Recover the amino acids of this structure.
């Protein structure tokens, strides 16, 4: 497959409250002033940079002919894990963040999304509260969220875009050979 772009599978996007934080330390300009203040983000926020990366990736993949409306998927995670099942839903979900609760990955929803040998991209500041917690794996044994996530990511063409400083997630992904 050298020289070709793998089939796009999905984007995993962090929409937790920490993503409203500024990357530059400056206050910034509100990008969606019509929205309730709980759902607003600025042009200096981590979330804004995640959106730039996501929509830029959609355009690139579209021009390469590997972005299909019906097969594009995305997952937003924060206080809850929400799933979009086509490109229109992906864009709608991206533009309507929850910015609620803590930051946790619901692996029961993510497990269904991961395939193999497909393009998977994550966009996050990596501050995931349940990253080191145990869940029940496919074999019924206890496994950490990070280990299950990394195991599934390794079966794909996985890329993590770290927004902000280094995190446990970004260190663990790099240690596992995922960048």
């Amino acid at each position: 497959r050298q020289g070709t772009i793998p089939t796009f599978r999905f984007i995993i996007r962090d929409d937790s409250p920490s993503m409203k934080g500024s990357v530059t330390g400056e206050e910034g300009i509100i990008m969606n002033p019509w929205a309730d203040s709980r759902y607003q983000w600025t042009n200096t926020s981590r979330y804004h940079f995640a959106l730039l990366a996501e929509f830029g990736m959609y355009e690139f993949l579209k021009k390469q002919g590997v972005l299909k409306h019906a097969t594009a998927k995305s997952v937003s995670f924060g206080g809850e894990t929400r799933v979009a099942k086509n490109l229109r839903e992906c864009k709608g979900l991206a533009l309507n963040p929850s910015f609620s609760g803590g930051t946790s990955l619901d692996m029961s929803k993510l497990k269904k999304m991961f395939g193999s040998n497909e393009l998977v991209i994550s966009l996050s500041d990596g501050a995931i509260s349940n990253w080191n917690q145990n869940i029940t794996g496919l074999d019924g044994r206890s496994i950490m969220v990070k280990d299950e996530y990394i195991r599934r990511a390794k079966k794909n063409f996985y890329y993590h875009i770290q927004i902000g400083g280094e995190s446990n997630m970004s260190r663990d992904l790099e240690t596992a050979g995922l960048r």
User: Anything to note?
Assistant: The first strand starts at residue 8 and ends at 14.
